[in-house]
C-alpha cells in the first residue's frame, strides 16, 4: 500500500523498562479482550495493547490490505511508541498477524505466542468466510453477532458463563462491518506455510481442545513447522485467553519469562 501508514490506536501499561509484550486480539473484538490477563502480566512486562485495523479505535487501512500490510502498520505504531524489540502474543487473527510480523520484521521479535490460528486459509475455509460475509450483508449485524458467539463458545460454556459471553457479544457488536470485512479479506489471502521455517525465535503455539473454528491439529501443524516450538492444548474453545483465562495467563506468562 502506498498511502502514508497511520498508527494503530494503542495503550501501554506496566513497567516502561520491562520486556515489551504486544497483545494482538482476535477478529471482531478489540484490545479489551485482554482485560483478564492485565492484572497479572502488567507486574512483569511492559504491555502494549493495540486495536487492529478497523477494530476498536483504529480505522480500516482501506483498499485491499494483506496481513503484511497490517504488520507494517503495527511496526509503525511500535516505532512511534519507542518500542523496538518485542514479544508478540496473538489469538486467532492476532496470531495470524504475529506470524506476518515475524516474517516481515524478524529482527524485532524476541518471542512469539500463536494461539488458535493456522498458517494458511485453504479454499474450503475461504468459502466459509465468503458465506459469513454474504450472511452479514443479507441478515445484518445481529445475526453476525449470534453466529460468531456460537462458533467461539459451545453450549456448555455459554450456559456456565453468560455474563462473560455478554461482554464478548458487546465487543463483537461494537466492531464495524467495514473493519470486519477488511480483516476477513486479509485472512482469506493468508499463506505463511512455506515460510514458517524462517521463524527462529522461541515460539509457543496454543490450541483449544474444544476449538471448532481452528482445531488443535491445525495448530499442531504450525508448531511442527517452527523449529523448537512448544505446543500446548488448553481446556477451551476458540477464544482461549477468555475461556481458559487462568491457564492461558500462567502458561503464556511463564513462557515469556523463561
How would you explain this protein's 3D organization?
This protein is an alpha/beta fold and 258 residues long. Helices cover 45% and strands 15% of the residues. It has eleven helices and seven strands. A seven-stranded mixed β-sheet has the order 1-3-2-4-5-6-7, sandwiched between helices. α4 runs antiparallel to α8. The longest helix has 17 residues, at 123-139. It is globular, with a radius of gyration of 17 Å.
Summarize it.
By secondary structure, the protein is an alpha/beta fold.
What is the arithmetic mean of pLDDT?
Answer: 96
Number of helices: 11
* Widest sheet, order of strands: 1-3-2-4-5-6-7
Strand tally, please?
7
The string of secondary-structure elements, in order, is: EEHEHEHEHHHHHEHEHH
* Relative helix content: 40-55%
| Percent in strands | 15-25%
Radius of gyration: 17 Å
Low-confidence stretches: none
What's the main sheet like? 7 strands, mixed
* Structural class by SSE content: alpha/beta
Distance between the termini: 38 Å
Shape: globular
